[in-house]
Every structure is written in C-alpha cells, then in structure tokens.
C-alpha cells in the first residue's frame, strides 16, 4: 500500500514549532545508536521542550537507545516513550519531535530486534512497538477526542502539543502505511492500527477506502480481541460493512489465562483510554 504522489514524503518533517531541524529520514533510517544520538542531539533543542517530568534534555539519548544492541536497554528506552514522552496518553511539547524521530526510525533494520514483554506491549519486535506508540499518540488527537474536549471547554486547537501532532499526521501516516502489508503479522496489525488513528486528518481522508481491506482482512481476523474490536468500531464509524467480523466485546467475562487466548493477562496491552483514567476528560 502506498501514498498518493501529492502526499508528503515518507517520514518527512514539517517546519513546526517543535519540529526537528534536520532531514531525519536520510539520517536516522540507516544509522546505529551512536550516530543516531548525534543526529538527535542537534535536530531539536530538546532542553527547551517539556515532557511529563520536566525538560527533555535526555530525550536524544533515550530515543537513540531504541536502536541499542542490548534488549534491556531497548526496553527501557521504549518505557521512556510510554511513561515520559507520552505519559498516560498525554501529549507534551517533546512528544511532537519524538514522534517524528520514531517515524524516521521505522525503516532502520535494527528495529526488527525484540523487546521485553511487559504490561505496555505485545510481545514482538521494536518496529511493532513503535507503530503502536504512534497509534497511541495519534489517538490523542482524533475527531472523537476533539468532540470530548470541546464539550468540556478544552478544544485541541488550544493545546499546542495537540496542534503539533495534528500538523505532522501526514508524515506519521506515510511512515506507518509502508508496513500495512508487512510479512510480520504483528507489524502489519500495528501499522494498520496507527493508520486508522491518523486518518481523521482532512488531508488523509481519501486514504480510508484503500485501508478498508487491510482493516477487514488483517486486523479484523487478528488473534487479539483488542484489534478485532478496533477493526469493527472503525469500519462502523467509517460507514463500511463490518458484517462477519467477530469482536470480543467483553473479554473480562472469561477466566482462561492462557496467553494464546483472547483473555487479557497482566502482560496484555491495555486499550487506549482517551480519558486517561479519569471519570471525565481532563484538559490534557
């Protein structure tokens, strides 16, 4: 599956307030951890951007460690993405350039390495995890989220990090769509998940029709109840036919703890919660 000629180039960057200042695809896509760190160090003035725990001066090192040869180091770097740069599904200033960097890393052969399984992730390679992280970031700026925020007086347009992610959605889509037909089923499902979240962008709406077969045939037949449910919900929301797809709407009714079944375990990923654990949507 490819993008139209009129779309932004894969993994490209925009000149946004928090965007990177270098051509990330050329530099990051084939570099090792050390070289990537040098690039990231100069790509963005990270020390002026905030994440969940203050300023993001350490972000270049942590992002580069996603390519590290040591699995525990890679896993810790992935945790930094989830718990610092995108803590509790919240967007921060540093989330925007981090998303561009993650997108630029996707073609790097080093992201085919595995990571430790934990409660944040599916067992799989780093590329799968990075695509799912992009999906989570994109999920924070969907039309549905904007409706909820507006209802409570906090529209996305008033939150600069959200605006920044909205601006780079075409770049993130171009990066993710390259893996929709990947031979690794986990990677393909993660890519489809990311693309679905990104296609609320008015500039990308015309790509929905092309993605529908992958949603139905790949995500809709996933071993993961979360993915099957997402496929049905997305097809229904887009006005497409979801007939024949089986989504486990309430898997918690079952008690089988076998990891190969649809019942969530402590290591199963948690569904994206746009309310971030609150009883009603907070400002951000």
Structural class determined from secondary elements? mainly alpha
E-strand count: 2
Q: How do the SSEs run, as a string of H and E?
A: HHEEHHHHHHHHHH
Number of continuous helical runs? 12
Radius of gyration: 18 Å
- Write down the overall mean pLDDT: 82
How do the strands line up in the largest sheet?
1-2
Q: Give the overall shape, derived from the CA principal axes.
A: globular
Terminal Cα separation, in Å? 34 Å
> Considering DSSP H and I runs of 4 or more, what fraction of the residues is helical?
40-55%
Low-pLDDT segments: 2-22, 253-284
Largest sheet: 2 strands, antiparallel
What does this structure look like?
This protein is mainly alpha-helical and 284 residues long. Helix content is 44%, strand content 1%. It has helices at 24-28, 33-43, 59-64, 71-85, 95-105, 126-139, 143-151, 160-167, 169-177, 185-198, 208-217, 225-237, and strands at 50-51, 54-55. It has a two-stranded antiparallel sheet. A hairpin with a 2-residue loop joins strand 1 and strand 2. Helix 4 runs parallel beside helix 6 (126-139), helix 5 runs parallel beside helix 9 and helix 6 (126-139) runs parallel beside helix 10. The longest helix has 15 residues, at 71-85. The protein is globular, with a radius of gyration of 18 Å.
What are its keywords?
12 helices, disordered C terminus, two-stranded antiparallel ribbon, globular, disordered N terminus
Fold topology:
Blueprint: H1 24-28, H2 33-43, E1 50-51, E2 54-55, H3 59-64, H4 71-85, H5 95-105, H6 126-139, H7 143-151, H8 160-167, H9 169-177, H10 185-198, H11 208-217, H12 225-237
Antiparallel strand pairs: 1-2
């Amino acid at each position: 599956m490819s993008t139209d000629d009129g779309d932004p180039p894969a993994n490209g960057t925009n000149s946004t307030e928090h965007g990177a200042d270098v051509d990330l695809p050329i530099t990051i896509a084939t570099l090792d951890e050390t070289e990537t760190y040098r690039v990231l160090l100069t790509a963005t003035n990270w020390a002026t951007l905030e994440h969940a725990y203050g300023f993001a001066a350490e972000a270049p090192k942590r992002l580069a460690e996603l390519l590290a040869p040591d699995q525990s180091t890679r896993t810790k770097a992935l945790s930094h993405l989830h718990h610092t740069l995108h803590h509790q599904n919240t967007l921060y200033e540093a989330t925007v350039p981090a998303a561009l960097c993650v997108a630029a890393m996707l073609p790097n052969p080093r992201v085919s390495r595995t990571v430790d399984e934990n409660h944040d992730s599916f067992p799989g390679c780093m590329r799968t995890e990075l695509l799912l992280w992009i999906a989570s970031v994109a999920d924070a700026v969907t039309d549905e989220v904007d409706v909820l925020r507006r209802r409570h007086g906090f529209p996305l347009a008033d939150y600069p990090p959200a605006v920044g992610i909205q601006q780079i959605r075409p770049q993130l889509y171009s990066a993710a769509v390259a893996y929709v037909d990947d031979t690794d089923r986990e990677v393909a499902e993660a890519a489809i998940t990311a693309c679905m979240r990104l296609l609320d962008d008015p500039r990308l709406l015309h790509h929905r029709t092309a993605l529908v077969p992958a949603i139905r045939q790949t995500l809709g037949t996933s071993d993961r109840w979360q993915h099957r449910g997402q496929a049905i919900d997305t097809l229904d929301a887009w006005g497409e036919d979801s007939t024949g797809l089986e989504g486990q709407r309430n898997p918690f009714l079952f008690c089988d703890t076998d990891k190969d079944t649809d019942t969530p375990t402590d290591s199963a990923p948690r569904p994206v919660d746009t309310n971030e654990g609150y009883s009603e949507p907070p400002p951000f």
